[in-house]
């Protein structure tokens, strides 16, 4: 039997993903987020784990360096990689939204046209504003998106929120939802054909475990 290589994302989805996969027999010793080992293998079950940065994960899966992976829908939409999306895992729920400083909320969506938007998600932001018929100036940032309108870099932001606490603490107000997101199981297209039975069984087992956890 050949190895099934699973890519795990660093960050908020990591721990839950490791636990859920272990319940369906996909585990190995010392699968921890800060592992010094780049590849962690279980010789007995022929499962191999790689732990990668969130935005890189779909790239590893698309090019076959990993057979499957777990990643947020937000990253999938932003990266637009050529992979199969097999299952909505149902956890890691959050949403991409547009927010503005509380004192700069305007009556209509179109009133924000031509403003500057700070975001980690430029592709998703452009797609969203195009649908609204709005031309915006997009500024791509990699961190502390909430800071941009406070210091005058942008008038508004497009960012991922879970609870909205950080937004409120920085006196920003959510004015539109771009899309909802949660963790997804994805697969390399060639791996899906070559290891079809194994991956199909894994999907069914995961569905059962996730349903059990919900109950």
UniProtKB/TrEMBL annotation:
State the UniProt keywords alphabetically.
Amino-acid biosynthesis, ATP-binding, Cytoplasm, Glycosyltransferase, Histidine biosynthesis, Nucleotide-binding, Transferase
One cellular component term (GO) for this entry is: cytoplasm
Query: What is the taxonomic lineage of the source species?
Result: Bacteria, Bacillati, Bacillota, Negativicutes, Acidaminococcales
Q: Where in the cell is it found?
A: Cytoplasm
Under the heading InterPro entries, the entry gives: ATP_PRibTrfase_cat (IPR013820), ATP_PRibTrfase_CS (IPR018198), ATP_PRibTrfase_HisG (IPR001348), ATP_PRibTrfase_HisG_short (IPR024893)
Give the gene symbol.
hisG
One annotated GO biological process: L-histidine biosynthetic process
The organism of origin for this protein: Acidaminococcus intestini (strain RyC-MR95)
Under Pfam families, the record lists:
HisG
This one is known as: ATP phosphoribosyltransferase
CDD domains in alphabetical order: PBP2_HisGs (cd13595)
- EC annotation from Swiss-Prot or TrEMBL: 2.4.2.17
